[in-house]
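INFO batch 0412 | record 1 of 1 | parsing
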Amino acid sequence: MGYKAVLFDLDGTLLDTLDDLTASVNYAMDQMNWPLRDKKEVRRFLGNGIKRLMELCSPSGISPEEFDKAFKLFKSHYDEHNQDTTKPYDGVIELMEKLKQHDIKMAIVSNKVASAVAMLWEKYFDGLAQIAIGDEPGLDRKPAPDSCELALKRLGIEKADAVYVGDSEVDIATAKNTGVNCITVLWGFRDKDFLEEQGATCFAETPEDIFKEVCR
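INFO prediction complete | emitting tokens
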């Protein structure tokens, strides 16, 4: 009978943000005279927010003061350059337009800092997703269920009528912790074998696959 609402992860699910994130990581690495990171490394480290990304990218043995400086460098660069190459994945906008036509409610739920989520929502998904929730004080980040539960409350949707769509092990755990079903996309930041190991069972190779599952 399908679903009444879809909760979307952002990075790696709706938006291809990898190049801009890698550029900002390496700006901070270069300014600190630390080794640069390639896209494969950054891709592997994504999913738990930008602070965790920078923790994984930074060399071992650095002081808290050095990390704070690097993190500030990353954030200032990413604030200015987070839309240089970022764009929706092919077919994502069309998917959301079709879901809207079928009266499916949509929300974006991300571990990205709330200000960046709001900016990207307004640029790409305003009029499609009703709400967007990012990392903000008072909410435990995914895989905690807080942000998804808040999204469902704001949408007025019961858990049984919602599905979560993401690309990583964090998203799989988030759906489980929230008590909703999960669709895992295969165009994001993780490979299928790894996702299956993490418990993923329902996959989407294309945005159209999501539509078929939501409106079945």
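INFO post-check: The chain has two domains: 5-16+86-214, 18-81.
INFO record closed
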